[in-house]
């Protein structure tokens, strides 16, 4: 059975992101996709210190939720990351988590389906959405879209329940993501995944 991980970057377990995720999880269940919800926002997650130890050991030097989630991410077919908007950007916890998760894991993320979900009272949503999507696009992960940007509006979970278009967007997102996961699995069997070239790493160390 295909599986999707959902990372809740909010410190509120039953907050706006949880309400959005609930809509997605219902659809994933209908589509026969297994899900696992991981609460990142309630954990003490420090940022990456660029020590490079993960290249030697295959895991982050800080042995916390990042290392616990890494093998689940490797086994998953899709990843949904959700965050509330803080000062026009995603929550600091989820950014630290994503930095370390993506940097310290050296398995291929190629063709895993990614989706970002954001919640806001009023503004900063598209900027936060853009930040989260960059983790996917640097990793060869196709990005799932919906019938609007993947966002819900509200100050509380009760507000989000009134955002009928936002909830509809979440359901359509989960349907699209389910389709992509199945389609990629079928295509892999028939054609194989695209070849990934990794011969060049341009950094201009000579300063020219």
Walk me through this protein's architecture.
By secondary structure, the protein is α/β, with parallel strands linked by helices. It contains seven helices and six strands, in the order E-H-E-H-H-E-E-H-E-H-E-H-H. Strands 1, 2, 3, 4, 5 and 6 form a six-stranded mixed sheet that branches. Strand 5, helix 5 and strand 6 form a beta-alpha-beta unit. The N and C termini lie far apart (51 Å). The model has no long low-confidence stretch (mean pLDDT 96).
Percentage of residues assigned to helices: 40-55%
Q: N-to-C terminal Cα separation, in Å?
A: 51 Å
Please give the number of β-strands.
6
Round the Cα radius of gyration to an integer and report it: 17 Å
The coarse overall form would be globular
The biggest sheet, with number of strands, parallel, antiparallel or mixed sense and barrel status, is:
6 strands, mixed
How confident overall, as mean pLDDT?
96
Helical stretch tally: 7
SSE string, helix = H, strand = E?
Answer: EHEHHEEHEHEHH
What is the oligomeric state here? single chain
Structural class: alpha/beta
Show unreliable segments: none
The fraction of residues assigned to DSSP E strands is 15-25%
